Amino acid sequence: MRPRWVYAGASDDLAVALHGLGSFSDVMLYEVNGGLFVTWSRVRREFRQGVLAYLIRSLRPLVRNRHTPADDVKPVKVAVPSDIGASGRATKSSPAAAAAKTADGPPPPPALEST
Question: For the chain, what are the domain ranges?
Answer without folding.
Answer: 4-82+90-114
